[in-house]
Write a structure and sequence with these properties.
The longest helix is centred in the C-terminal third of the chain and has 21 residues. It is built from 3 helices and 7 strands. The chain is α+β, with helices and mostly antiparallel strands.
């Protein structure tokens, strides 16, 4: 069987998130890479506009979030971490921009401290901003974080 492509996973994740939003009367436009820092432009049922950054995984792993921190100070940016396994039900973890910043920042500080204790450089290129699976687990199906959710 061929290896699973990160592009297949990301497309599956974006369409899965868009589908979930449409089921709840949101209007969704995929940006197709034309809008930096957001994968979906969304209008809620009451007309509230916001952006969604989708991060997809097909197996439990570390969620990479790059570039980090986001260049935009946009309170209307939300993150949906979509778990889209091949042979199981999709799962969604919804965070506000501030929640994502907090979780990723706390994880980065913890990793930096561990690297310092081991005498390793903290600016190692192999180390990237992101969020471990366990940190998003408490945000499963928290669609109510989004504007206009009913």
């Amino acid at each position: 069987m061929p290896a699973h492509s990160k592009y297949q996973t990301q497309w599956a994740a974006q369409f899965a998130v868009a589908s979930e939003l449409c089921k709840h009367n949101y209007k969704v436009a995929l940006t197709h890479g034309n809008h930096p820092g957001a994968d979906l432009m969304v209008f809620g049922p009451k007309g509230t506009a916001f952006l969604v950054e989708v991060k997809g995984l097909y197996k439990e792993n570390y969620w990479q979030v790059r570039p980090w921190p986001p260049k935009r100070e946009d309170p209307d940016l939300f993150f949906v971490f979509a778990f889209v396994p091949k042979d199981a039900k999709n799962r969604f973890f919804v965070l506000t921009r501030d929640q994502c910043l907090k979780e990723a920042g706390a994880h980065r500080r913890k990793c930096q401290t561990g690297r310092i204790k081991k005498g390793l450089p903290v600016d190692d290129e192999r180390y990237r901003w992101g969020v471990p699976w366990r940190l998003v687990a408490g945000h499963e199906n928290r669609w109510d974080y989004l504007p206009d959710w009913e």
